[in-house]
Design a protein that fits this description.
2 helices, globular, Ribosomal Protein L30, Chain: A
C-alpha cells in the first residue's frame, strides 16, 4: 500500500500527561505530539493503532 492510498489519522492531545505513567507520556511523544492541543497526522498502521489504544484517554482521533 503506497502512502497516497493509505488512510490517515488526525491525532490531537486533549488531556495532560502530568501524573500519568512514564510509558504513556513517552507513547504520546512517540506519536509526535509535543504539547496540549497539538495535532499530528499519522498513517493508519497496526503499530500506530496500538499506540493510540494505549493512550486513548489522552487523545482524540479522526479518520481523514
Amino acid at each position: 500500500m503506497s502512502a497516497s492510498t493509505a488512510k490517515t489519522l488526525r491525532v490531537t492531545q486533549i488531556r495532560s500527561g502530568i501524573g500519568l505513567p512514564r510509558d504513556q507520556r513517552q507513547t504520546v511523544r512517540a506519536l509526535g505530539i509535543k504539547r496540549m492541543h497539538d495535532t499530528v497526522e499519522q498513517i493508519d498502521t497496526p503499530a500506530v493503532r496500538g499506540m493510540l489504544h494505549k493512550v486513548r484517554h489522552l487523545v482524540k482521533v479522526e479518520e481523514i
